[in-house]
């Protein structure tokens, strides 16, 4: 019995145009491997989320999304908005591809297509991975409050085709424009941490910005979020910490802390920026974070 056609939605602007240049090759590779796909392009922010939800509600067994972490973010919110067991397939075509790294999905698009074809044709059982939630919105890889959210917003505004280096450039620009260290109250389990902080990151996967292993201990299916927070840091101190962050050795530093959690509340004395999977939110003062273990079916 022939395999039914699988919807494949791609984001043409992912990877600063990388996605649209590679989709013909991805389509041909899946076809060669015996996976028929119905390919469509997203047309605007929010389109993937809406379309994935429609496909899940229509009963599709699987949906493939080709794009970056923002595309995966939309897809996960579309899937979790409805009571569906539709599985998600990922072809990483973004700039950072942090979610793909966390799930050992090959970074080369055609290799990822080959893995998907092998799993779909062999009817390999789907994997379940955890999903986080912040103020009612889901995130697949991670959420950040403070300086890393500022860096995410700067990176989104840079159009240079320099790959992961866009995030390093964004860090430098963020330092030049200044580092806010608002007073925050972070409450989890029976603990409360209070003080001035540069950032609070809630990691489901290990990576952020493609090149920064901010939570090297994180595992995307362990039923935990990894809260990594940094005390108030000067621009000079952050600059000195960047090399250790790139090597995943920043947890040794006295100002950087880690706590495994399942839920958390953050209150900031003034509105601070936040991001979910690199998608930026308006500045806010209150954040409710929790984890949904095994909520996403992944091909």
UniProtKB/TrEMBL annotation:
For biological process, the GO terms are:
phospholipid biosynthetic process
- Does Cytoplasm count among this protein's keywords? no
One Gene Ontology cellular component annotation held by this UniProt entry: plasma membrane
Superkingdom of source: Bacteria
Q: Which stretch is the leader sequence?
A: none
Q: Which residues cross the membrane?
A: none
Residues annotated as domain DAGKc? 1-138
Look up the record and name the cofactor or cofactors this protein needs: Mg(2+)
Q: Which GO terms describe its molecular function?
A: ATP binding; ATP-dependent diacylglycerol kinase activity; metal ion binding
Q: Name one Pfam family in it.
A: DAGK_cat
Whether Iron-sulfur counts among this entry's keywords is no
SUPFAM superfamilies per record: NAD kinase/diacylglycerol kinase-like
Entry-linked Gene3D superfamilies: 2.60.200.40, Probable inorganic polyphosphate/atp-NAD kinase, domain 1
Which UniProt keywords are present, listed alphabetically? ATP-binding, Kinase, Lipid biosynthesis, Lipid metabolism, Magnesium, Metal-binding, Nucleotide-binding, Phospholipid biosynthesis, Phospholipid metabolism, Transferase
Q: Which InterPro entries match?
A: ATP-NAD_kinase_N (IPR017438), Diacylglycerol/lipid_kinase (IPR005218), Diacylglycerol_kinase_cat_dom (IPR001206), Lipid_Phosphate_FormReg (IPR050187), NAD/diacylglycerol_kinase_sf (IPR016064), YegS/DAGK_C (IPR045540)
**Can you say what this protein is called?**
DAGKc domain-containing protein
């Amino acid at each position: 019995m022939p395999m039914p056609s699988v919807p494949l939605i791609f984001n043409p602007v992912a990877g600063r145009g990388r996605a649209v240049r590679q989709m013909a090759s991805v389509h041909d590779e899946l076809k060669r491997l015996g996976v028929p796909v119905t390919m469509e392009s997203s047309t605007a922010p929010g389109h993937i989320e809406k379309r994935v939800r429609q496909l899940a509600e229509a009963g599709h067994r699987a949906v493939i999304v080709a794009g970056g972490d923002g595309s995966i973010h939309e897809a996960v919110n579309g899937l979790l908005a409805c009571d569906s067991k539709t599985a998600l397939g990922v072809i990483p075509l973004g700039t950072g591809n942090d979610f793909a790294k966390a799930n050992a999905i090959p970074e080369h698009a055609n290799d990822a297509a080959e893995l998907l074809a092998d799993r779909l044709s062999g009817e390999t059982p789907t994997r379940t991975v955890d999903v986080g939630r912040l103020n009612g919105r889901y995130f697949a890889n991670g959420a950040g409050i403070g300086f890393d959210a500022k860096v995410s917003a700067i990176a989104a505004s840079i159009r240079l085709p320099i790959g992961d280096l866009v995030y390093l450039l964004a860090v430098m620009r963020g330092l030049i424009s200044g580092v806010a260290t608002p007073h925050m109250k972070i409450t989890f389990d029976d603990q409360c941490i209070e003080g001035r902080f540069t950032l609070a990151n809630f990691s489901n996967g290990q990576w952020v910005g493609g090149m920064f292993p901010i939570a090297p201990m994180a595992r995307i299916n362990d039923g935990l979020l990894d809260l990594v927070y940094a005390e108030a840091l000067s621009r000079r101190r952050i600059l000195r910490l960047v090399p250790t962050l790139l090597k995943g050795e920043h947890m040794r530093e006295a100002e950087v802390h880690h706590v495994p959690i399942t839920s958390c509340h953050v209150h900031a004395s003034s509105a601070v920026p936040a991001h979910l999977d690199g998608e930026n939110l308006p500045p806010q003062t209150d954040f409710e974070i929790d984890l949904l273990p095994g909520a996403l079916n992944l091909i």
